[in-house]
Every structure is written in structure tokens, then in C-alpha cells.
Amino acid sequence: MQRRRRINPIDDAKYYVQSGRDKGGLDIQYINACKGRGLFTSTSFTKGDFVCEYRGELISQQECKRRQRLYHEHLKVFMFEFKYNGKLWCIDASKEDGSYGRLVNDNHINPNTKKKYITVQGKPHLCLFANQDINPREEITYNYGDSEWPWRSNVSKTTI
Ligand SMILES: C[S@@+](CC[C@H](N)C(=O)[O-])C[C@H]1O[C@@H](n2cnc3c(N)ncnc32)[C@H](O)[C@@H]1O
């Protein structure tokens, strides 16, 4: 029997970035009043696979600060600031556009994906790749970074 050739994860990510679509095998579920919604798998992913893009509007740091003054706290959490090629950028994913990446929750202890910036048509895109094998029905998570997120102090290691 012939083995199926694995798609190169970076090429896979670029394909989905360019198409502006999300992959199959993922779905959004409501978890609870604290976490809200989350992204779950209905299929398995192998370590290294591209999972989804944190899709939104790429804006400058200056525009990010301007919007942060206007936005409600609930929208600000969808603004992802990052450094790329020595410059500060922000992805504003505050718009409810049905995309999956914006609904991925934080897990700073054992996240199952890791973020990577990939360049498509000269612009950075924040993509999540599996950092371990992921089974069907698992929640997709990544580490939001070192900020003092309020939920982190309220939970024990076993409940996130
Ligand atoms: C980018 S949104 C993620 C999607 C969000 N769960 C929703 O339903 O819209 C970030 C927000 O999700 C919630 N969140 C993310 N990770 C969490 C966690 N580990 N525990 C509790 N709440 C979390 C917090 O309310 C946070 O402000």
C-alpha cells in the first residue's frame, strides 16, 4: 500500500492564508460562562501540522493604540500585538467574522499549538501549528504569552 505524502505544513498554512478560509476538521463550541467559546477538533492533527490562522486586520502600532482607546475591554482581548522584522504590529481580530483562530483560548501550561509568523505577499500572518499530536474532540489552545491574564490566577493546573 502506498503511503500518503504529508503536505508541507508551511505550504499548507500559505494555502489557507491566501484562500482566506479555515480548514475542515475544526469546530467552535461553547464551553462555559468563564471561557466562552473555544475551538475543538473533530479530526486528528499530527505534531507539526498547520491548524489555523489567527486571522484579522493587520494594523500599525499607532493604529492599534488608537483603537485600544476606543474599544471596550471585551474587544481589546482580540488585538494581538507582535514584533516582526524589528517593527511592532497588531492583528485586530475583534470583528465576529466566523473565523476560527480568534476563538482559540489560552493554555500557558500545556498548549497543543505554537504560533509562528509566516510571510505571504510581504505581510506577516500569525499561524498556529500543532506542537504535539492532537486527538479528535480536544480543545485547540496556545500560550497567550507572559501577561498577567486574570483567569490564570483563578485556576489550578488541572482545570485549564
Ligand atoms: C481571544 S478570546 C478567545 C475566545 C473567547 N473564548 C470567546 O468566546 O470569544 C480571549 C478571551 O477568552 C477567554 N479565555 C481565553 N483563555 C481562557 C482560559 N484559559 N480560561 C478562561 N478564559 C479564557 C477570556 O475571556 C479572554 O478574554
UniProtKB/TrEMBL annotation:
Ranges for domain SET: 24-145
Gene Ontology biological process terms in this record: regulation of DNA damage response, signal transduction by p53 class mediator; regulation of transcription by RNA polymerase II
InterPro entries for this protein: KMT5A (IPR051760), SET_dom (IPR001214), SET_dom_sf (IPR046341)
Cellular component terms per the entry's GO annotation: nucleus; polytene chromosome
PROSITE patterns cross-referenced by the UniProt entry: SET
GO MF annotation terms: histone H4K20 methyltransferase activity
Signal peptide: none
Name of the protein this chain belongs to: SET domain-containing protein
